[in-house]
Amino acid sequence: MTAQDDATTLFEQLTGQSPDGIWSAPGRVNLIGEHTDYNDGFVLPFAIPHRTYAAVGMRDDGRIRVASTFADDAPVEVALSELATLFPTPTGEAPAVAEWAAYPLGVAWALQLAGAAGQGVDIAIASDVPVGAGLSSSAAIEGATASALNDLWDAGLDRTALARIGRRAENEAVGAPTGIMDQMASMLGEPDAAIFLDCRTLDANLIPVGIAEAGLAILIMDTRVQHAHATGGYRERREACERGAAIMGVPSLRDVSVDDLARAEELMDDVTFRRVRHIVTENQRVLDTVTTLRESGASAIGDLLVASHASMRDDFEISVPELDTAVESALAAGAIGARMTGGGFGGAAIALVEQGAVHAVSDAVTAAFAASGFASPHLFTVTPAAGARRDA
Ligand code: GLA
Fold first, then answer.
1. Fewer beta carbons within 10 angstroms: which end of the chain, N or C?
2. What residue ranges define each of the domains in the chain, with the CATH number in brackets?
3. What is the pTM (predicted TM-score) of this model?
């Protein structure tokens, strides 16, 4: 059974009827540009073939009910008029509903705040995006739900507006202080392209990556170390970036260039400076990666990926031993480049590998994990895939 079938079956079990439609949105992987999004900087993610499906049907009693195949708990049901009493979730607190339900309910709430309104709905969700792997399973839920309600409620919002709705749900309903990269990648993905996004203006340009044409593959190395961004390290990194920008007297670290780093080092403590240096150099690496892809193709970006990982490991300090082992063992086995991807503290790394070497690199990574006593990683290749859409 596919995830689309699972969503349909769950909907039928829930309501005894067929859904009015099925919408889906993908997870994403980020090629380069980490923690730059909430600093108004640049990112280069692409949507992956793994998707979350929402089977949705209208109901006429003004209530919204959500169910999911990946949550053991019962469906959650509230009146649409009550959403404003559940959200926003105060900073640092858990949502008033189960966290999985806060994503789709938060999207409905954020759409209401944007002026959208409509009938009650039943929503059944199923997904094949690995959860907790740093592949944006949450943006996929948000994108599928936002697309469905946008159509059913005739809200007429464009993809960028729907990405903002998803981000608002994540920030204010779930309480995770994330940027907008994941939602934009999930909404705007196209086969064979990465999305070069300016997170200040939300200008998005599709960049052909030509990975398959160059005889290459992107290998995802899911460490299966679970991470969460609502708490802890992610929030601390964000605060350090805000501190650094304030010391530099600029609205965000987007406004600090590599040439400014010597002055930054004089003005701030060592930890804040290293956080700043990661963001400033990472923004430059995204720009360099786009130029390199255009001029020389995917086989030439390996060094930029490796430098990005080193910066996250040493300056931003968001890697973990499993991620470092994945990157190092992939490179030692011949990968052209490798880096952790996503928010860090667990999740996945990517490796850029010649197609003929995928097996050898995978075997080497698996062996390195076993030798270190880590749980076996989950390894698979991905190609850039389509963004959110209506499937049925
Ligand atoms: C998570 C967040 C994104 C982004 C990345 C790090 O995926 O959801 O907004 O900050 O981490 O690049």
1. N
2. 3-206 (3.30.230.10), 209-382 (3.30.70.890)
3. 0.97
